[in-house]
Amino acid sequence: MHTIWLTGAEWLAVLRIGLGLWWLESWRHKDKKSWFAGGGIEWAAGVAAKHRWTVVRTGFDRVVKPRPRLMAYLVAYAELALGLGLIVGLLTPVALVAGLLLNLVYFVLMIHDWAEQGQNLMMALVSAVGFFALCGQSWSLDGVLGWFS
Length: 149
What we know:
With 149 residues, the chain is mostly helical. It has one domain. The protein is built from eight helices and no strands. α1 packs antiparallel against α7 (114-132) and α5 crosses α6 (92-109). The longest helix has 21 residues, at 8-28. The mean pLDDT is 93.
């Protein structure tokens, strides 16, 4: 494949690193004190309580609501791990699938808030493209270690 300036694999690495930076920003911009005190989960509980789909309300009430502190840490550190993993290209396919799933959860929970949906859909699309295009082949620890090639 002919491209300007970089090879196709290198452009995919740029895409992967950009997605990693996006996840890192999702983690960075959280008010950690409020988030870990339950603010983020309380906000999400309010969104889930008004959700039009019963499965979302029920799932949130059974899985997330009883464990607000654990879920707050899980979400925040999942975003951090995804960001770092994608930036350095470590376990890239795993990070891409996990990120895609997390974006889909965000998308389903926030189905009524179209302001957030563009970000979630774009990140999910980049994850899918990166996964199927094997974007961990260049500029990555996976490539150096010979993993997933």
